[in-house]
Amino acid sequence: MIIISIAYCMFGVIFVTGQNACSGGIAINSERDASRISGCQRYSGDVTVSQVNVEKLDFGDLYEIYGNFIVSNNFNLKSVLLNGLTKVSGSMILKNNTQLIGIAIPKLTSVTKLSVTNNPNLNYLNADSITSADIVEISQTSIQELRSLMFKKCKSLEISGNMNLKSIELFNLVEASQYLSIMDNNRQSKLSLPVLVTINGKMTFKNLASISAPSLQKVVESMNLIENTAQEIEFPVLQNTRNNIFIISNKNLESIKFTKLRDIGSGLIIQNNPKLTTIAKDSFPELQSIGDKILAVGAFNSVEFPKLKNVDKAITFQSSGKLDCSELRTQFEFMDDNRWICGINSTKDIVGNNNNDSEKTNSTKVINNANSKTQDFIDLYYKNLSRKPQNVLKQYADDARISWNGNGMQKTNLETQILSKLGGIRFEVMSHDCHAINLHDISNGMVVVVNGYLHSGNLSKQPFSQVLILVNNPSKKNEFYIQDDCFRYV
Known about the structure:
Number of strands: 41
Low-confidence stretches: 1-19, 346-364
Strand content: 35-45%
Number of helices: 5
Radius of gyration: 27 Å
Structural class: mainly beta
Number of domains: 3
Largest sheet: 23 strands, parallel
Distance between the termini: 31 Å
CATH architecture of the largest domain: Alpha-Beta Horseshoe
Shape: elongated
CATH class of the largest domain: Alpha Beta
């Protein structure tokens, strides 16, 4: 571990600061420029620090900034001291400072936006007094722990790409009114949100070793639980979410518990969690209604939803375990047959204990055939999305069930709501996986999972995940179209 100590010296300095020196906006190019405003009780205007050649800037007793404070693109600057600063009415942005190792804002209580991004050597952030912040972004630093953020409410909070960050504890946070995203930090990172009650937007927890949110009651948009290494995910008092719950690619996950969850506004997607073999009675003991679909793909041996009485659109279970589809069907008698899919991707489960070579050979052929058909389909699909989005309509069934980033729609609405807005966007597929719903025959359909990136001009790439259920086109042999489409940003 690298420990950096920044010593602070207090000097008795008296500044005689004229009114003009404390307003109008200033570009800081030297220590002398910083000293010019260091005695201001209130500075009105933006303060910018860019491409300076000094290693340290001390803003002394500067008390309030009515404007923005921006430190960006400095390649020699190592520390910024704002020991007297209590308020920034606009944004405090620290970005692209390659040598910056320390920031001291110990008295800052209020800032509209705090953005600390792409400061790769930064491992000291003293911001213990911030009690009011609308937007907070901390990404691509060397910070090892975050325990000093004291605000109770924010609009949005993003902590991402901090590869040394192992501990995130937000002791006071009660509400995020837009979104909360904690993702892609150190793989041993532990998250604690002891008093968080409400997220009025999207929640994304990714690459976390443990997650603790014992007071969380409400998530308005999607809950994304992706690629975590935690063995257990539990939300003991969560009552409802108006959108999707995604539980995807959590390699060590063995248990999920949503003890008081009653309603899911859209879909429940549980996929590619290799150690999650059971959805137990205590996983969703109070769940009664799902507004869209269940899509569960994994090594399931048993599944139970003891109180579930309504799923509006479709249920799909795809298991490589010992799941008994006939027995499972009795739990969902309220579903029509045309909205129910259950398939087993296991030779043993489909053909009993018969392990003869012909059965294995047939299974291998089906798997290879599924991979080939899927590759052809997604090549055409994403080529169309990138070049001629309207052409993908031909690849959808007329009654397809479609959800893009939490917005449910019919095929007739897909063009106006989504496709017409994709001009200039390129889709890059990084990986895909497919499972035949019936191991003996791909004609019963396939479940396809695609992960990749969207590219748009000079903007940073946006990761996405898409789950497609392909069904056979009865009018054209060996041709498939999309029956279900669930697309989301990650």
